[in-house]
Amino acid sequence: MTFGFPKNLFLLIAGAALILSSCASTSGPVKITKVNPYHLESTRIVETDDRMVEFEHRRHLHGAVTRDEYRSKMGQYYSVFWKSTTKQPATVRLDYRQGSTGSQVLSKELFIAKPKRSNVTKFEVTGDEYWNGGKVTQWKALVIENGTVVAEYKSYLWKE
Fold first, then answer.
1. Under 8 Å between Cβ of 90 and 144
2. Is the model's pTM score more than 0.85?
3. Strands of 30-40's sheet in order across
4. Sign of the C-alpha dihedral, residues 37, 39, 45, 50?
5. Which of 35, 39, 36, 38 is CA-nearest to residue 153?
6. Segments making up each domain of the chain, as ranges
7. What are the tens digits of pLDDT across the range 59-78?
8. Which whole-number Å values give the CA distances from 95 to 117, 118, 127, 136, 155, in the listed order?
9. Would you tell me how many other CB atoms lie within 10 Å of the CB of residue 15?
10. What is the 3-state secondary structure (H, E, C) of the chain?
């Protein structure tokens, strides 16, 4: 029974509702809101009117005095911003590929015993790891609770 609607119109509306509902995104109890990558490739301070750009550069170089210390700080830095309503212990993992390692996936993990509602987890690919492996070409951030991936955020170039 179609309640006075033509049968084709009823199927069209039902199909559109089904398609639109499948496109809706649901936010789970754990979500990665963003990942901020920062590439430090020069010791020369960037000259700009934006004080935040200059500060970021100086912050990563802080404490370096010798050429070897500066070299050890060169590389790529990642800040993973994530939220958790469960507040259960979690592991945050950064999977990445570098230019000189081909399709090999490398990983870095940090265990967070007591996450807050809003969290920031930081990763570095610096020093010899950066100089030998090359620039990070693609990355994926994951939040894992009890062995299950509960949140994921990928770079545009990430391929499985």
1. yes
2. no
3. 30-40, 75-84, 118-126
4. negative
5. 35
6. 29-154
7. 777 777 888 887 788 899 99
8. 23, 22, 18, 10, 11
9. 10
10. CCCCCCHHHHHHHHHHHHHHHHHCCCCCCEEEEEEEEEEECCCCCCCCCCHHHHHHHHHHHCCCCCHHHHHHHCEEEEEEEEEECCCCCEEEEEEEEECCCCCCCEEEEEEECCCCCEEEEEEEEEHHHHHHHCCEEEEEEEEEECCEEEEEEECCCCCC
Provide the token pair at 117. Answer: 């509602």
94-149 residue pLDDT tens:
999 999 988 999 999 999 999 999 999 999 999 999 999 999 999 999 999 999 99
* Nearest-angstrom CA–CA distance, 145 and 104: 25
C-alpha 126: how far from chain center: 17
Q: What dihedral do alpha carbons 57, 152, 121, 86 form, nearest 10°?
A: 150
Give the integer Cα–Cα distance in Å for 28 and 48.
40
Q: Identify which of 87, 92, 121 has the alpha carbon closest to the alpha carbon of residue 107.
A: 92
CA dihedral 99→104→108→111, nearest 10 degrees, is 150
**CATH says 29-154 is which class?**
mainly beta
